[in-house]
Structures are given as C-alpha cells and as structure tokens.
C-alpha cells in the first residue's frame, strides 16, 4: 500500500520543532554513512561474533581508539550498539542490519561520491560524476541475491533446455556466477567485467567459494567481448543492469548494435535481461515505501553517471528492432520488492 503523504509541521510548529523536522535528512545522511563504515571498517563483523572491549577492538583492527570511541558513541546514541563499561555489542536493531548490508555498499560506498558531486555536474557539458565501481559491483551483486538472481532463475527455468555455458556480462564480484554453478551442477560460466579491480575481487570471491575450476573471469567490456570472434560462445548471456549503461554511453544505436551482435555471433543463444523501469515521473507509484527509500535515490544517481533507465515499452521495442523474440518476462517477488519496477526478460534470437 502507498504511504500516506507526509504533512509538514515546519510552518506551524515552534522554531525548534520545525528545525528538528527540517534537518532530519542531515541525521539520516550521517547515519547512513556511519553504518557503511561500521560494515566497511570491519567493526560489525568483529562485534557480530561476540562483544568486545573498545580497546581490544581498536587494537585488533588498527584503529585510533579515540576515533573509534567517537564512532561507537554515535552509533550507541542511534541505538545500533551498546556500550557498557567499555564493552561494545550490537543491539537487536543493529543485528537486523546485516541482511541489508549490500544496499549500503552500493549506494553509500559506490555512489556516495556521486551524490556529493551533483552540484558540480549540473552544468551543460559537465559530464558524468565519478562512482566507486568496485563498491557498486559488490553491492549490486549482494542486492541481486534477493531480487535479480531469483528473477533470473525464474526466467532460466522457462528455457526448454537448461544452459551448459553461461556468460554474465558485467559480472561484478562474481556472485551471480557462483549462484549459477550452485544451481546448475556441471554448468560452466564466464564473467566479463571491465574493471581490473572488480575482476580481482571476483576471482577471490570465486576461489573462496570453490568454483575456480568452473568459472573464468575475463577483464573486458561487454561490447568488446561479444564482438570478439574467438570469445566463448555460451548457451545463455545474462545482462544484469547492462543495457542502461550502454544506452547512457552509446545511445540507442549502441544498444541495438550490441544486441544484434549477440544475435549474429550466437544465433542459438538465449539472453536474460534485467533492468529497472524508469518510474521517476509516476508520482503515485513513487509514494510506495520502497520507491521513496530506494528507487528515488537510485533514479537520481543515474542522471549523473552516464546511465539511462527506460520503460518496459521502450525495451520491448528495442528487443524487437534487434531481432529478438521475448519468450517470457517477470518481476520481483512481492515479498522482496512489491513495486514491480525491476523487470526481467528471456529473449531468443
């Protein structure tokens, strides 16, 4: 159900009441940043295993004790940790954050600098703002475990014959590839990722999971890999949040050329496409709780990072003009994401 519209009390309250309401976003900005660092600095994992003294925690992680104390005191005041006689532990609310860690990795670690650079990139010809591609990839893969990967599984299950070789174009940290290999015994997979740092992270993740013998990581762009006649020819290409990158950087012609190249080079292959439908101007739909909490900032950052989201109708037109038949389409489980904004397509050349 859509949330009720918030009625501001800024104009009718005392100055202090109005101030508290007006600067609440500043509190949330600082809190989101602190939570990201709680995870990223290794603190969360340490105290998730068992409570620790601040002194022991600082020594184990190589942190300045006074600065660590300040961060933990702040988090105590936000009721995420407890501090009793110098011992720090997670609260129930703090423990509940673990399953949502990937959203902080992507939106704060990956795109935090993007949000801060918006003002510098409003001007004509100012180009795209920077992002941390490794954190974007790792965070995106973590989020996908809950939404995009189950969606991909649902679409693959509609194929008449299960794939033997899968190629993930834009594989991030390799999570998709590991999940594929777990889901399909005997499957071989190849991941394509343009960032060498992301490739290194993917190889480490895959090795830790024990799938290095079944998964290959190639440092290359999706466009160049598909155009390489010597490249692996899979049964299934997976394009998770890839087409909107190509659209933003090379335009519609670039997307159609890319898909057409897949069709020409591997006519028997299937393609799974996962994209987010652009709903930023749909005022009613954007009042949904998850639309406001996640998709609104997600839509915003795409205007400043040379990425271009589009609608379902647009993608259906592009698939047809690229020579693909849409065999099936689906959206996320309502238990995870009831907006219906994330879309999945199973294509066949």
Automatic annotation (TrEMBL):
Enzyme type, top EC level: transferase
Keywords: Methyltransferase, Transferase
Coiled-coil boundaries: none
Gene3D superfamilies assigned to the protein according to its UniProt record, in alphabetical order: Vaccinia Virus protein VP39 (3.40.50.150), Winged helix-like DNA-binding domain superfamily/Winged helix DNA-binding domain (1.10.10.10)
UniProt keyword annotation of Isomerase present: no
Enzyme Commission identifier(s): 2.1.1.243
InterPro entries the UniProt entry points to: MrsA, SAM-dependent_MTases_sf, WH-like_DNA-bd_sf, WH_DNA-bd_sf
GO biological process: methylation
Keyword Disulfide bond: no
GO-annotated molecular function: methyltransferase activity
UniProt-recorded name of the protein: 2-ketoarginine methyltransferase
């Amino acid at each position: 159900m859509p949330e009720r519209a918030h009625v501001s009390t800024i104009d009718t309250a005392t100055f202090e009441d109005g101030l508290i309401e007006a600067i609440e976003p500043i509190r949330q900005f600082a809190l989101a940043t602190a939570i990201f660092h709680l995870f990223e600095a290794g603190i969360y994992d340490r105290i998730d295993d068992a409570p620790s003294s601040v002194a022991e925690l600082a020594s184990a992680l190589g942190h300045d004790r006074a600065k660590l104390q300040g961060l933990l005191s702040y988090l105590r005041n936000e009721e995420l940790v407890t501090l009793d006689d110098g011992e720090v532990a997670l609260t129930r609310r703090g423990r509940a954050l673990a399953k949502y860690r990937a959203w902080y990795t992507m939106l704060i670690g990956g795109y935090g600098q993007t949000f801060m650079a918006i003002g510098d990139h409003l001007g004509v010809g100012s180009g795209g703002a920077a992002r941390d591609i490794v954190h974007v990839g790792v965070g995106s893969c973590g989020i996908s475990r809950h939404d995009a990967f189950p969606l991909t599984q649902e679409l693959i299950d509609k194929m008449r014959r299960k794939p033997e070789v899968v190629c993930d174009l834009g594989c991030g940290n390799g999570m998709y590839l590991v999940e594929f290999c777990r889901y399909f015994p005997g499957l071989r997979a190849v991941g394509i990722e343009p960032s060498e740092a992301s490739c290194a992270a993917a190889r480490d993740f895959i090795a830790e999971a024990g799938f290095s013998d079944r998964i290959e990581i190639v440092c290359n762009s999706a466009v160049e890999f598909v155009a390489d006649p010597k490249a692996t020819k899979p049964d299934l290409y997976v394009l998770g949040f890839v087409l909107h990158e190509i659209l933003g950087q090379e335009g519609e012609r670039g997307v159609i050329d890319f898909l057409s190249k897949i069709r020409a080079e591997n006519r028997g292959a299937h393609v799974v496409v996962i994209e987010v439908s652009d709903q930023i101007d749909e005022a009613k739909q954007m009042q949904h709780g998850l639309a406001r909490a996640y998709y609104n900032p997600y839509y915003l950052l795409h205007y400043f990072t040379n990425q271009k989201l589009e609608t379902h109708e647009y993608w259906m037109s592009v698939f047809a003009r690229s020579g693909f038949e849409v065999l099936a389409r689906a959206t996320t489980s309502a238990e995870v994401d009831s907006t219906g904004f994330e879309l999945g397509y199973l294509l066949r050349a």
